[in-house]
Design a protein that fits this description.
By secondary structure, the chain is α+β, with helices and mostly antiparallel strands. Helices cover 33% and strands 26% of the residues.
Length: 134
Amino acid sequence: MRRGACAEPTIVPAVVRIRLPDSPGPARVEAVLTRALATLDPPVVPEVVWVPVLSRTSRRREELTYALVLSPATPRALAGDVEDLVRRMRRTIRKAVRRELGCRAEVALRFARDHEEVAACYRAMVGNPRDVHA
């Protein structure tokens, strides 16, 4: 019996930062992000994880940072312009966050930039988010 070659799915690592005047808690924000990304067309399978070591809190606003890894749900999901995908994701997330958490919420989405950021996201996904030097 012959097996076909199975290509690894494309993984897109990104970082989402959300600034909130009032803290609803990381779990609620994570649920809002996951629901929003599930509505993208073409669909993607998001994995959203809060990264405490990249999050900050000031006197006025809390900034929660999430690692976002996308796998395509269909072959055409990540085909084409990646910047277009980022724009669509940013717009979808911004609308959902403002609808659920208030119009003063700010959203920034970008690809992970450096090794330290990618490592912090990885540690959060494998269950060791506070170990900065692993």
